[in-house]
Amino acid sequence: MASVHHFDHNHILSLQDLSREDIHLILQSAESFKEISSRSIKKVPTLRGKTVINLFFEPSTRTRLSFEIAAKRMSADTFNFSASTSSAVKGESLVDTARNLMAMHPDVIVIRHAHSGTPYLLTKHIKASVINAGDGTHEHPSQGLLDLMTVKQRKGRIEGLKVAIVGDIAHSRVAHSNIVGFSKMGANVLVGGPATLIPSGIEKLGAKVGKTIDATIVDADVVMVLRIQKERQRDPLIPSFREYANQFGINKKVLTAAKPDVLVMHPGPINRGVELDPDVADSPRSAILDQVSNGVAVRMALLYLIMGGD
Amino acid sequence: MAARSELLLKNGRIIDPVNGIDEQGHLLLAKGKIAGLFLKGKKAPPPSQNRREIELAGKWIFPGFIDMHVHLREPGEEYKETIDSGTKAAAAGGFTAVACMPNTEPVNDSETVTSYILEKAREAKARVYPVGSISKGSHGEKLADYGEMKKAGVVGLSDDGRPVTNSQLMRRALEYSSNFELLIISHSEEISLSQNGVMNEGYVSTKLGLRGIPKAAEEIMIYRDLSLAEYTGNPIHIAHISTKESVSLIRRAKERGCLVTAETAPHYFTLTEEAIDQYNTLAKMNPPLRTEDDVAAIQQGLKDGTIDVIATDHAPHSVLEKEQEFDIAANGIIGLETAVPLTLSLVRGNIISAQRMAGLLSSNPARILGVQGGSLQIGRVADVTVVDPEREFVFSADEVVSKSKNSPFLGRKLLGKAVLTVLEGKITFKDL
């Protein structure tokens, strides 16, 4: 290769912090790590002797398991620490937790937390690398990266694609990472859904706003469907699931507006029959299971790159 | 040796907006009063045994600054600030008087709490004016006992920090307070709109994934308060305004003859929401920092007289409340020790004159609260603030006088500083 891009990040906190070149390098590395998962002995010694702590303040099955598998396939030692977010209010503060963890000398802390920005707070108090595995309604960078990888595999490119993201944009950290990531890599990103769920200033983050679902997904190469929650706190966001399914749900009929070879994605878990019709979720157009297997490869790449490999 | 009882401040730039004075001269303080003004080249009185002289060439002499919006945290949260530490911070920042908000523990809704505060403030480095609560316990349900509190010494009424959501209660408060000539100070916020927002709503809140507070939450409530003040014919003071439309609402109300006065805080004319970048909880307050447009409009409001007062909303919090997830970190910043340089930057930027600065920090709050000071006229109380506009300093946590260090200006190099603070003729702070 003509030039080698050097990966210069101690932490992976958001896709806003990563350059196009960084993202290229991560996706490239993930492609090469993908092969390891198809071997009969799915383990390389790359990160032997390194310690990864999964610090999860919110329940998660897929993401935590995916990080754990990724670390183990690289021969790192992994430990899981789960705590309910409410204990942060009553008991030990996050800063104290961080200091305690540091006394155990981890190399990487993978954190998920219900409050946006918590990974940043962690970096101010510890020396280990921090990977954000989802913070509040801010970002979920590894999910954004695995979505980029999935689309690149299925479509052969990112640049110039039309990517529609539909649903609860306001409260979705996945949507935020994807808007930033896909627009950074040259895709045209449109968001759509009930206006109550489109946050102000989203255009500046890199997405155009579609007035209707049809206008959002017309000619789309990729349709990303987000999980819908009926209410958050006391905020009336949508009248009912039924109304949502009828007006904003993605089904075969709605998808006729998109390109014939449209790829349908969902970060899971799916409310079948609400935001996504089962017919679509299980069709060949769906990339949902590719997303899961690419997740392991992307996380292997992230662990490798922040621990100094490049 | 007995302390010399008179103080002669020599060769300073004397600024008194009440009498339209802005010129070089000397100021004599005696027996706790302004005793002599020597302007237009008039010679200072000769040296005398019982008179201390201080040379102030290049310094600006103002009537003592009055911060009409602070939180002293006593009683109840003395680990954040006390009346003693807060008034020391006030003196160090150039303030001779402060009005303290009632959201203590317990809330100041009674003669007992008011008297407790005033008793603690007897030997303090700044005059303390307690503000009583609008509603009992600031619960927003029943009127507090205004007559009892007035007798004990409150100068105004506010449920600051907990907006009065019930419009009927606000109406009755405006009416009933008029019997005692107590000013209602409104923290105007429509909480069904601000909900549990933690910063201004817009691009930055979306980018950071933080819940936003729309500007309309402030503006709607200001409109309600103006409407009730006009309808009942009573004065109202709007606290800490932060948006462009708030300035415009108040400007129009004043044009109609509404008896409204308004204040803003230095952070609203200095910082934008961008200061929150990387989840800096030291830039978290309520109302939240807004956008460049709003900052420009606040500056314009200070310039054209729409905004009457600069008050700091000094809100001390310990690291316990601030070193947390942004969502749960406490609102508020300390402000007493940074108000002077931040306001001076408006003077340097030709947005306001030195006289207007004196109005915003001294004569207007004195007039609005109906308290002494606010002018250097002979016979007035000898409360004086001397500022060195050229003194540069780095605002560092080690040098903060307040018990709490929660300021977004920490580490900043600031230009201009209070160098001498005089309360009733006695020096409370000196850094000459």
Please describe what this structure looks like:
- The complex is a heterodimer of chains A (310) and B (432).
- Chain A contains 13 helices and eleven strands.
- Chain A is an alpha/beta fold and 310 residues long.
- In chain A, helix 7 links the parallel strand 5 and strand 6.
- The longest helix of chain A has 19 residues.
- Chain A is globular.
- Chain A starts with 19 loop residues before the first helix and ends with a helix.
- The model of chain A has no long low-confidence stretch (mean pLDDT 91).
- Chain B has 432 residues and is of the alpha/beta class.
- Chain B folds into two domains: 107 residues, Urease, subunit C, domain 1, CATH 2.30.40.10; 306 residues, Metal-dependent hydrolases (TIM Barrel, Alpha-Beta Barrel).
- In chain B, the strands form three sheets. In chain B, strands 1, 2, 3, 4, 5, 16, 17 and 18 form an eight-stranded mixed sheet that branches. Chain B has an eight-stranded parallel sheet with strand order 6-7-8-9-10-13-14-15. A two-stranded parallel sheet of chain B has the order 11-12.
- In chain B, helix 4 links the parallel strand 9 and strand 10.
- In chain B, helix 7 packs parallel to helix 8.
- The longest helix of chain B has 17 residues.
- Chain B starts with 5 loop residues before the first strand and ends with a strand.
- The model of chain B has no long low-confidence stretch (mean pLDDT 97).
- At the A-B interface, helix 5 and helix 8 of A face helix 6 of B.
